[in-house]
Amino acid sequence: MDQNMPDLSAVRRPVETAQGLSNSHYIDPTFFEEEKKAVLFANWSGLAVAADVPEAGDAVPINFLGMPLLLIRDKDGDVRVFYNTCRHRGMILVEEPRKIEGAIRCPYHSWCYSTKGKLVTTPHVGGPGQNTHDAIDRNDLGLAEVRSHIWRDVVFINISGNAPAFEEVHADLLKRWEEHEHPHYHGGADSKFQLPVKTNWKLAVENYCESYHLPWIHPGLNSYSRLEDHYNITELGKYSGQGTLVYRQLKDDAGNTFPDYPDLSSKWDEGAEYIVVYPNVLLGAQRDHSFAIVLEPTAMDHTIEHVHLYYAQAETSVELREKNTQQWREVFEEDVFVVEGMQRGRHAMGFDGGRFSPAMDGPTHCFHDWVAGRIETHRAANDAAGKAAE
Q1: In the chain, at which end, N or C, are there fewer CB atoms within 10 A of the end residue's CB?
Q2: N-term to C-term CA, the chain
Q3: Which pTM was predicted?
Q4: With the C-alpha atoms ordered 328, 329, 334, 338, is the resulting torsion angle positive or negative?
């Protein structure tokens, strides 16, 4: 192991004695680069939601940690992720969100690809008027596809291609929420928003997965869903979050609520759960709606929170949807000064990563332990590769 990389054993101790990740993991570009590979590229990271490309041919270019990707719904309605790069000379294919009417055409030399990534035309590749060449096998030059999986409308990607199947990695969580395996209908334009925050993406995760801060940061929410009504969700090495025993449905002026998801057990009558799908997706499940927050790390100390709200039916009250969106926006905005304050606080040289309340910070410690484990695995693989090359 590189001697400049601090030991992570203190982070991986039991919550009673563990320390948090050191400042370097939040403010040092070297560590940010390491985490990109060890945590965000090596695992199933959230990229977007399928609702971003609602119709066949819809294409959205996305910059994922400096990597140009293309989210597209192909002609058969399947959502795919490709590298947004022509196989000829590496030109960016799609600059702005748009509808692909025929083929994806490279603006440089007009090589064209189907919405399934197949290379279909190569004009003048064999010389003027010659659109084929023996050395250019179109079957070998389709767009490079990124491994992807969709769950609860979130598009997860595995850049390295080496992670176990999504269903295997998250088997326990899928089992936990199997009652909610119903269609989730995105509320549309009035049911999504973005929050740019000046913080490392991990701090947004850490804040979301615990309820300890509710009395002081969310007094309105805490007035009816109190701290004592919440419970920790800690599945070490898998996922973490919080749940509440007191969920209050939103009502309009006439007392109407959103339709419930079907076939839910009584647990969900007044309960709700809020879980982090490691590394960067925050999910909420309630009886009548759900949400997904995809954290986009745009820099070491900048993150965009992409918030999407979903319902049990495709058609719901516009008034209620707008009221619900505004309510959640207010809740999530209350957290902004906290995660930005923690980011600034990480520049204190004397801060040792902090301690965890064994009673209240279990979900956050669970996340720290998971990140540390992924980094240790990455470093061990690099060490082994280095020794093999000697």
Answers
A1: C
A2: 15
A3: 0.96
A4: positive
